[in-house]
Amino acid sequence: MEPLEIKKYPDGILRKKCLNVEKVTDRELKNFEEMLFTMRHFAGIGLAAPQLGIARNLIVADIGEGAIQLANPVILKAKGSDKMEEGCLSIPGIAVYIERPYEIIISGLNEKGQAVEIKATGLLARVLQHEIDHLKGRLIIDYLNLLEKFKLRLNKKLVINSGSGSRNAGKNTF
User: Fold this and answer.
1) Residue (of 36, 62, 55) closest to 134 by Cα position
2) Span 17-38, mean pLDDT?
3) Please, which residues bridge with residue 117 across strands?
4) Cα separation of 164 and 174, whole Å?
5) What confidence tens digit (pLDDT) does each residue in 127-160 have?
6) CA dist., res. 143 & res. 138, Å (int)
7) Where is average pLDDT lowest: 83-87, 132-136, 165-169?
8) Would you give the DSSP letter of residue 82?
9) Measured between alpha carbons, how far is 34 from 52 in angstroms, rounded to an integer?
10) Annotated catalytic, 111?
11) Identified catalytic residue from 28, 34, 86, 131
C-alpha cells in the first residue's frame, strides 16, 4: 500500500464541514485502513478524512496505545484544561500552543459499526479534539490571535507545500 497525499493548507477541503456516515461499510473500512497507513507513514498520531480529500466524518488516532477508528465522533463531555504545542500534517512547519480540555468523553461508530463511548485524557484527548476540529473545517492556525497570524505571514513561516511531503519529525503532529 502507498500512502495517500495529505492535503495541505490552503486546500479548500480542509475548510469544509464533513458529512456524517450512515453506517460503517467496506468503503469506510478501506478509508480507515488508508488513513492509518498514511498517518503512520508520515509519523503522525492522528488524521481526519478531509486531510486526505474525503469530506466525511472519519478520524483515526494512535498515540502508541492502539489505534482508534471512529465515524461521526462527537464530544459529549469535556473538563479540565491543558495547554500544549500542536502541529498538523496539513500545515507543515507550524506549531501552535492551544488550550483544550484535558479530559473528554466522545461517542461515535467504531470500525465494526458499533456505537461506542471513549473516555480520553491528556495527549489522546488532545489528538481526538484536534481531529474533530478538522471535521468542522477548523485548523490549528484558527487558534492564533490576529497579531500572531500577521506575524506568521510577515515572517513567511507558513510554508505552503502541495506535495505529499516527507516524513514529519515532530511527535505532536496530528
Assistant:
1) 55
2) 98
3) 107
4) 15
5) 999 999 999 999 999 999 998 888 877 775 543 3
6) 9
7) 165-169
8) E
9) 9
10) no
11) 131
